[in-house]
Specification:
The protein is α+β, with helices and mostly antiparallel strands and 212 residues long. It has helices at residues 3-16, 59-65, 74-84, 104-116, 190-211, and strands at 25-28, 38-41, 46-49, 70-71, 95-99, 120-121, 125-133, 139-147, 153-156, 175-177, 179-181.
Length: 212
């Protein structure tokens, strides 16, 4: 086997283990290695806290319960959804329903849930909702709902038009709160490890070539 063929083969193998190699969102850690309770967005450079940690908390409580973390801004929420969902077709109320899980948008919604965690589960749905304050200072929610009966998904975007101010001082049964910070050290994930491995493969192939 020639060095070039060996490099191509090894590259394919490495990338096959790197599902997030081209994604903007990378699973990260909150307090312990491999706890997977944070998400790093390499497009914005900020890290998001897993929604399961703030589930059932009031918006105000969540904002003070985690040292070093703060409420996400309206613009950060808008960028998160714009950068990581492919052209959703929101209705006038700001959400899209009946998204097939096998479509590109459906797969993106499922990945969102896997990365951001669940704020609520029932026999019929899994929910990843987070509270945030919009540009008018009104609490909104945004996130993803997965119907476990038919497998279809729903995306509630930054323009979902509802007033959730009641949850400033009271916990929501279905939602967490979007919290962010910009100084979390990201644990290398498959994409990072793939790049490192490819570099090592390149060096090895050069050495192999010199020997023969």
């Amino acid at each position: 086997m020639t060095p070039k063929l060996l490099l191509i083969l090894c590259t394919a193998i490495v990338l096959s283990f790197s599902p997030l190699a081209s994604a903007g969102l990378i699973q990260a850690d909150y307090t312990a290695v491999n706890d997977n309770l944070a998400v790093y967005d390499d497009k914005s450079g900020i890290t998001w806290l897993d929604l399961s940690l703030t589930a059932n908390m009031s918006y105000n409580h969540a904002g003070t319960a985690f040292t070093g973390w703060r409420h996400a801004t309206n613009s950060e929420i808008a960028s998160l959804f714009q950068n990581n969902f492919t052209a959703p077709t929101y209705n006038p109320s700001g959400y899209q329903t009946s998204i097939l899980a096998t479509t590109e948008l459906g797969l993106e919604a499922k990945i969102f849930q896997q990365l951001f965690g669940l704020s609520f589960t029932s026999t019929s749905t899994t929910t990843s909702f987070g509270l945030y304050s919009n540009e008018d200072g009104v609490l909104n929610i945004a996130g993803v709902v997965n119907d476990t009966y038919d497998g279809n998904l729903e995306i509630y975007g930054p323009d979902y038009a509802n007033d959730f101010n009641a949850y400033r001082g009271n916990g929501s049964q279905i939602s967490g709160t979007y919290l962010v910070r910009s100084d979390v050290e990201v644990v290398p994930e498959p994409a990072t490890l793939a790049i490192f491995a490819l570099g090592m493969i390149g060096l090895a192939s050069r050495r192999f070539k010199k020997q023969f």
